[in-house]
Amino acid sequence: MPYRGGGPALVDTLSGQVDMSFPTLSAAVPHVKAGNLKALAVTGATRSELLPDVPTMEQAGVKDFVFTQWLALLAPAGTPAPVVSRLSEALNAALGSKEVRQKFQEQGFEPFITSPEEAGKFLTGEVKRYAVLIKSKGIKAE
Q1: Is 29 exposed, middle or buried (0-12, 13-18, 19+ CB in 10 A)?
Q2: Cβ neighbours of residue 39 under 8 Å, at least 6 residues apart?
Q3: Residue 136: is it exposed, middle or buried by C-beta count within 10 angstroms (0-12/13-18/19+)?
Q4: N or C: which end of the chain has fewer CB within 10 A?
């Protein structure tokens, strides 16, 4: 039976109730660094800055398995382009600062700088990718 969240799955992995799980980096990194979990692979397309010695799933022998946790700053549809541009510039300036990057990394996140256009393409791609997965596996909301 699936878990009702990452927290319970991580607790059961740490306690030995289950052999493995897929926690988020933000949840796993402190336990990996403390020696309580062994990281077998990361699910991103590239190795993590936070766990650089841990291979990707593909490097570990699992093909076509890329799943990343991400956060995005979004504005309502119809927000004027100059406002979106200014927000993007301010966000990217903050993400480019050593202090902000360090705070994100301390929380287990790897910030990256992008443009509104690139972010839009990424979101569109994610929606399409998960729509195919949901349909092909017959996944239904509970």
Answers
A1: buried
A2: 28, 32, 51, 54
A3: exposed
A4: N
Distances (CA, A) of 86 to 22, 92, 113: 36, 10, 14
Q: How far is CA 76 from the centre of its chain?
A: 23
pLDDT of 129 strictly over 70: yes
- The rounded percent of the chain whose pLDDT value lies above 70 is 99
What is the predicted pLDDT for the residue at 117? 95
Residue 26: which of 14, 4, 2, 42 has the closest Cα?
A: 42
pLDDT of 105 above 80: yes
Question: What pLDDT, on a 0 to 100 scale, did the predictor assign at position 12?
Answer: 96
